[in-house]
TrEMBL record:
Name of the protein this chain belongs to: Chorismate synthase
Positions bound to FMN: R129, S130, S131, Q249, A250, G294, K309, P310, I311, P312, T313, R335
Cofactor list: FMNH2
Binding partners and assembly: Homotetramer.
Species whose genome carries this gene: Kyrpidia spormannii
Pathway info: Metabolic intermediate biosynthesis; chorismate biosynthesis; chorismate from D-erythrose 4-phosphate and phosphoenolpyruvate: step 7/7
InterPro entries tied to this protein: Chorismate_synth (IPR000453), Chorismate_synth_AroC_sf (IPR035904), Chorismate_synthase_CS (IPR020541)
Lineage of source species: Bacteria, Bacillati, Bacillota, Bacilli, Bacillales
Family indicated by similarity: Belongs to the chorismate synthase family.
């Protein structure tokens, strides 16, 4: 079974991720992981942390001469800012005088809930781990998943469709054209006119000391039919995707295909009619279901959208209460972005890649890449004859 575990604090020495369940002899390139980490750090509206960190992965186990060993793959990403935090984030010893506790929880963060749950008297003990800095490990893990899926023709990309109320409406004619259009935009929007307005909205929010959220879409092409299951609720592909995307910091809503729009339309305008072509097999003229029916991939592109709330750290802070004195204060200000929707889209890609890889391994097992490949080919041949 494919699974992963991450660890690390935002200003600690490093972030760590362990991936277990990869077949042996799978080619893995750290340069491809670094490229995804770079993409995560881009986007108009990012804050000062992105000028400090330049993330690169170091693989310390599970790989030899570029091929997986079938054993746990360990990755670490060093925090360059650790040099400035060695004393205040020391692993051992008594707290030094300069390590003053943070006592003012920020509205919208995990601060207060975490303090109450773990009985902390310093909010920093919560915010260091709950920080979106830790999405770097998710992107690294997702990049490994991409490299598992790529040999089977599965391609994953994203694009931003809304920021601060500005919606993208003019998209390229085909899904395949969206990635290039999105990557050429500083807000990762494939609609140039909307992208320009998004940049203006972000700049205005920055001047006002405010933040903006938005919506991004993740698309997976080449997904074979049969991933997931209708047999049990916890094996549904759409349920797993929704859970994975909602696990990303600041994501407050997920939809598949038409999503909430489907609730406002009659069934005749929602469901995808089925056709058959002797050469292509089963066909669809529409993909309102987002490539998933009954919790199972149906061979169409998998399309999901996620809504990101505005980042809760504001340069014009909201009111909060000191957890020690109980006095009203303006919430603490940590270094923050104005808008991180373009970056969140990259994290969303990673989570979609991970879920698809998980379901892929669930269906096509085997201890070596060759075994997985043989199972995949046999299954696809069987499907083509149906």
């Amino acid at each position: 079974m494919l699974r992963f575990l991450t660890a690390g604090e935002s200003h600690g020495p490093e972030l760590t991720a362990i991936v277990e369940g990869l077949p042996s002899r799978l080619p893995i390139r750290s340069a491809l992981i670094d490229e995804q980490l770079r993409r995560r750090q881009q986007g108009h509206g990012r804050g000062g942390r992105m000028r400090i960190e330049s993330d690169r992965v170091e693989i310390t186990s599970g790989l030899r001469f570029g091929l997986t060993l079938g054993t746990p793959l360990t990755m670490r990403i060093r925090n360059r800012d650790w040099e400035n935090w060695k004393t205040k984030m020391a692993v051992e010893g008594d707290p030094p005088p300069e390590a003053k506790p943070v006592t003012k929880p920020r509205p919208g963060h995990a601060d207060l809930a975490g303090v109450l749950k773990y009985n902390h008297d310093d909010v920093r003990n919560v915010l260091e781990r709950s920080s979106a800095r830790n999405t770097a490990t998710l992107v690294a893990v997702g990049s490994v998943a991409r490299q598992l899926l790529a040999p089977f023709g599965i391609r994953i990309f994203s694009h931003v469709v809304e920021i601060g109320g500005v919606e993208a409406k003019k998209f390229p004619k085909t899904l395949e054209q969206i990635p290039d259009a999105a990557e050429s935009s500083t807000v990762r929007c494939a609609d140039p006119e909307a992208a320009e307005k998004m940049v203006e909205a972000i700049d205005q929010a920055r001047r006002e000391g405010n933040t903006l959220g938005g919506v991004f879409e993740v698309v997976a092409l080449g997904v074979p039919p049969g991933l997931g299951s209708y047999a049990h609720p916890d094996r549904r592909l759409d349920g797993r995707l929704a859970g994975a995307l909602m696990s990303i910091q600041a994501i407050k809503g997920v939809e598949v295909g038409l999503g909430f729009t489907a609730a406002r339309l009659p069934g005749s305008e929602v469901h995808d009619e089925i056709g058959y072509d002797p050469e292509k097999g089963y066909t669809r003229d529409t993909n309102h279901a987002g490539g998933i029916e009954g919790g199972v991939s149906n061979g169409q592109p998998v399309v999901v959208r996620a809504a990101m709330k505005p980042i809760p750290t504001l340069y014009k802070p909201l009111r909060s209460v000191d957890i020690h004195s109980k006095e009203l204060f303006q919430a603490s200000v940590e270094r923050s972005d104005t808008c991180a929707v373009p970056a969140a889209a990259v994290v969303g890609e990673a989570m979609v890649a991970w879920v698809l890889a998980f379901c892929f391994r669930e269906k096509f097992s085997g201890d070596s890449f060759e075994e997985v490949e043989a199972q995949y080919r046999a299954y696809m041949e069987m499907v083509s004859r149906r």
